[in-house]
Amino acid sequence: MAHSIDKSPYFNDEHYAYWKNRLMFFIKAKDIHLWDIIEDGPFVPTKSKLEWNTNDRKKMELNYKALHIIFCALGPDEYARVSSCESAKEVWEKLELIHEGTNDVKEAKIGLLNLEYEKFKMEPNECWDIVCTSRHSGIIKQ
Questions:
Q1: Number of folded domains in the chain?
Q2: Do residues 77 and 137 both lie within one domain?
Q3: Is the pLDDT of residue 141 over 80?
Q4: Do 20 and 48 have their domain in common?
Q5: Domain limits at 43?
Q6: Rounded to an integer, what is the distance from CA 17 to the centroid of its chain?
Q7: What pLDDT was estimated at residue 12?
Q8: Which of 11, 13, 51, 113 is the most buried (most CB within 10 A)?
Q9: Segment 55-106, tens digit of pLDDT
Q10: Both 68 and 113 in a single domain?
């Protein structure tokens, strides 16, 4: 399946790590400042809206542009989970938490996968191709 370089990758609760990486590069390619907003958070003006200059408005727009790209890349179920977020950083972090878990959860998963990998062995009467393509690949992909 071909992917357009002008359309953000679509996500609806499958292959999160793949989608996350592709969307990160998509956003960086559009405008590296958008990625800065996702990593660092939105610009917070110190003046009232009536006192904003052109530069203040452009900085405020970055958060909304980043939100727009992320929201357009989400299916209805995923959108519903994060639609109440007000910043692109908040959306990104919430999606990470939902799909990757906390750092403790990530470390526990890695520990279990390492153990499963270390205990991995070929069963008697098992074909090598099957071992490599299904069981071994299944551990690696996780």
A1: 2
A2: no
A3: no
A4: yes
A5: 16-100
A6: 6
A7: 78
A8: 11
A9: 999 999 999 999 999 999 999 999 999 999 999 999 999 999 998 886 666 6
A10: no
Judgement on whether residues 95 and 109 belong to the same structural domain of the protein: no
Residue 118: φ, ψ to 5°: -65, -30
7 located within any domain: no
Give the CA count within 13 Å in the CB-facing half-sphere of 59: 13
Domain for residue 5, yes or no?
Answer: no
DSSP per-residue letters across the chain: ----SSSPPPBSSS-HHHHHHHHHHHHHHH-HHHHHHHHH-----SS-GGG--HHHHHHHHHHHHHHHHHHHTB-HHHHHHHTT--SHHHHHHHHHHHHH--HHHHHHHHHHHHHHHHT--PPTT--HHHIIIIIIHHHHH-
Place of tokens 């179920």: 77
